[in-house]
Amino acid sequence: MFYTLISLIGLVISMGAFVILMNYVDFESHYDDFHTDSDQIYRAESYFTLNGTVADSWATSSFGYAGAMKAEFSEVKAITRINFKDNERIVRYQDKIYRERMVVFADSNFFSFFSFPLLKGDPQKVLREPNTIAISASAAKKYFGDADPIGKVLDITTRKVVFHCAVSGVFEDFPPQSHLKLDMIISYASTSQFERDFWYMHSAYTYVKTNSEADARTIEKKFPALAEKFKTEDAMRDKSWEIHMVPLSDIHLNPLKPMEFEVKGSKQNVRFIFVFALIILIVGWVNFINIMTSKSIERAGEIGLRKLVGSKMKHMMIQFFIESFIINFLAVSVFLILMVIALPFLTDLYYSPMFNQFWQRPMVWGLLVLIFLLSTLITGAVPILVLRKIKIAVVLKNRMSFRVGMGKGLRHGLIIFQFTAAIVLVVSTVTIRRQMDYMQGKDLGADVTQTLVFKTPAKTDDYEGKLEMITEKMKTIGGVKSVSRSSAVPGEMVDFFIANQRDNDPEKVSVLTEMFRVDYDFIDAYQLKIVKGRNFSKSFGADKDNSLILTQSAMKLFGFKNEEEAVGGFINLEGQGNKKYEVIGVLKDYHHLSLKENFRPVVFLMFSPWNMLDFQYVSVKIQGANAKAIAGMLEREYKSVFPDSSFDSFFLDEFFNRQYKEDVTYGVIIMIFTWLTIFIVCLGILGIASLMLLRRTKEIAIRKISGAKPWQILKLINMEFIRWVGLAIVIGTPLSWWIMHNWLENFPYRTEIEWWIFVLAGLLTVLVTGITVSIQTVKNALENPVKSLRNE
């Protein structure tokens, strides 16, 4: 019963862990698969090349691509576009006013192109007319309650433009496995024809559905000629554009690109967890196999007698398979019971979308059946291999050794595999945790602590004046250190790019940079370091309209040799008719986004030549501990000036660290299941040690009669296991270093794999093994040897 219980617990944990981890892998790997013809859908992403190499890439493409590709490429079956136009919009219906993030413009064929179900409306017509909008079921409930939303008008404000949109359709909330998370979709016909076909700006998410026989690479090769034919002179001058056709199913796991707003997964993490799931399942199987194989010694006499009286081998095979079947069936049953109990907790605490429909996922049931059958086959077959080797004469003389059947080498090899797996997982867990701590603790080059950020209201005609007035009033509040305005904040992607040139560049090469609008106080408030030159200042009247500050990455991109050459130089902004703007300062590079990204080339300016660079955030630096009280005072000041707008605020350090949410979750998964794996290994050690002591009862009794002390007996048994651990350390140390070295290579800024991590993993394995073996050995070491010999 003892050995059966150990085997059962190990199988329950390993099978359960495998199913849960594979559910994660399946969930992450099958984004957007629910669309009809999903394997024929691609997103056309822009790549900007400079001197023959890719200088930048982003998820969007030019507005003009869609019509030209549909007309020129026979491989293209359909195209649809999405344009966010702004990060957020203010939506009003009667007295209900909300700031909505997931509001887009889309082509009229959006719902016939994708397979998002419409609850109300015709997919062919819902976005055909100007000033119409389709909304999600959640948005319909939010704004209209139980009333029919069709025909009702929503006022949507964005950058000084108000769209009055009649609701023409209601769609189901997009499923969790969609990379698109949209709440409101406005008809593209609501925008001007110029915006719909504009070639210069790359702000459209362009989705292409090809014919079944089409090759995406062929379309990519044909694109340069298409661009030459259709693009305007400004859009093509001194630039080389490419598009890459990215399969729809790859978008979620591909690295984050500029102009992407979804929370991305990680292909590397998914692969790692897949391998991890296999390891923990195999560890559980090895545990069972070793115990069952070793336990064969107890049944040797029974088997020998049955063979002697003529029992057929097939009958004994059936018996062992039935036993294996029962134990594996119990393991699956116990897992299902535990999962029913734990699922609500997991759904709330861990990864809600993955567990919401756990029991409805065919993969879960298919996987359970598959591993049940495989486990029954594997764990049932091994004892049979042992039985086939049993010699009746040896058995009846009670001389059957522990080396029967599979042989000592293979059996010990399986034990060493378990220890090696434990060492690799411990090293991996510690390294992953250190990398997470490194990214979250490293100096960003910008101070994001004690910073309350709130979003600016809808852009009314007197918006700029009111915003300046409120920021000045907030500076007088006790506990407020500084107040600054900007078009973006650290942790929020800068979503405005434009091609610029260094004025005296003989090659007149255009380079893409991020444009970031700030006020006089922003750079000082965030403690950005000026390497050369100066900050924007009210003492210099030209700063407000004609001056720029570059980061070091932008300086290098423009071809300046150093900071001294850059300061006093000039940059031509193409979108402003190549007007010259003076560089007055160079900033040290700072981490605007997470440490998973390289430094980005950023141009800071104070003026707003484009609507996209309106101030969208106000950053309030707070001193003192009473941050919540100060936030309340800030909200009251805000409401006194903008009574019809919601006060949407957040603390910037928390907002910034949300970029690591998926990585932290990944680290927690690895840590939890690493400890479960170690627990399974401990169960195996306990079982093997028990069987080893059973076989060596007579030897131990004789040693004790000969004067051996209990600690010497403990040492004798422990040393055999420690030798196996030593071999596992020799194998596991370079293996774990290689795995983690390759994993860390994906991070531009990473921690070091310190020597003490391997020492820790080895010592932990030795300690756990020693304690587990000693627990089982101490009873035998203290037992009366006469009693042991009498039992023998």
TrEMBL record:
What Pfam family does this protein match (any one)? FtsX
Which stretches are transmembrane?
Answer: 6-25, 270-289, 320-343, 363-388, 409-432, 666-694, 721-740, 755-775
* Every ABC3 transporter permease C-terminal domain range: 274-391, 671-774
Segments forming domain MacB-like periplasmic core: 4-223, 421-623
Main localisation: membrane
Q: Topology in the membrane?
A: Multi-pass membrane protein
Q: Name one GO cellular component term.
A: plasma membrane
* Compartment(s) where it occurs, according to its Swiss-Prot or TrEMBL record: Cell membrane
What name does UniProt use for this protein?
Putative ABC transport system permease protein
